Amino acid sequence: MVDTAIYIGRFEPVHNGHLALLRRALDNAAHVIVVIGSAWQARSPKNPFTWQEREAMLRDALPPADRSRLQVLPVRDYYNEAVWVKAVRKGVAALTTTGAQMGLVGHFKDATSSYLSAFPGWELMHVERQGDIDATSVRDTFFSASPETLPDTLRQLADQAPASTLHALERFAQTDAYPALQEEWAMLRSYRAAWAAAPYPPVFVTVDALVRCQNRVLLIRRAHAPGKGLRAVPGGFIEQRETVWQSCLRELAEETHCELSESRMRAALQSVAVFDHPDRSQRGRTITHAHYFDLGDEALPAVRADDDAMQVEWVDVERLPAMEDEFFEDHFHMLDHFLVLTTPP
């Protein structure tokens, strides 16, 4: 027995494998903290549910007596394991007493389980994997349904997820978000299938342009899947005969018509950072080179949406922290890197 058991996951959605681990935690500690990852990500086929919806799924799957012993700790994606571990430890410390004996519940299923080794001092409470239940396959089954086949689809999932999750999925299928995510899910499957015959898994190279002026940043809303309607900084794929610098200026001009001279952009360039976390994009392994430009207090350049942007606007930097769940992939993290929007853990 330990004083507090900690269970870390994304729970997209909650399935029976999650419940087996949660049961182990509840059976071995009076107090359980569930760390819900990807807490403020925008809805996507990989992250369809808000952290509050996932918390509700977890609590609804438990008897009332166990719900009272459970606390939830939402944690954002930092795309940096050391920073993420620090955030988890800080959050857990705020919910526990000094000197409490901690246990970490989990099992090593693949490379994504490496975080279990990142918490020395917490006793590892290993639980064998529960068959082949996997949240990715549950999502694939769910998003492949049509209105006519949805009842049968949910019945197919009855041996993989608790009734509370199936009821939550049924309700979610009635929302406007569901068909939009189905469309994006189908697009991503086709996208990955097009590269399936490549001799090696492809690695894509992209560029992004974070332009700041009068303490505002230039943002677009994406016109196409993936991430249709989500906010992003202007950017796109590098072309065969371009440098990353040339691609950055081209994408900025194509999407926003912010067509300042190259010499002006070079003078405004503050730094370039590479964002290369393996999970930053659902399209596949994608490495981007983000360029940060600051135009100071000069007049805001005229802009208009075009190409892959349905909307373009100058947004006050002060507004950005409250908009975290509106951004595509890791673009809020990109803004945070350059503009320091959040308090470091």
UniProtKB/TrEMBL annotation:
Domain Nudix hydrolase per the UniProt entry, residue ranges: 202-338
Keyword Transferase tagged: yes
Keywords: Nucleotidyltransferase, Transferase
Keyword flag Hydrolase: no
GO molecular function: nucleotidyltransferase activity
PANTHER family found in the cross-reference section: BIFUNCTIONAL NMN ADENYLYLTRANSFERASE_NUDIX HYDROLASE, PHOSPHOPANTETHEINE ADENYLYLTRANSFERASE
Classification via NCBIfam families: cyt_tran_rel
Protein name as catalogued: Cytidyltransferase-related domain protein
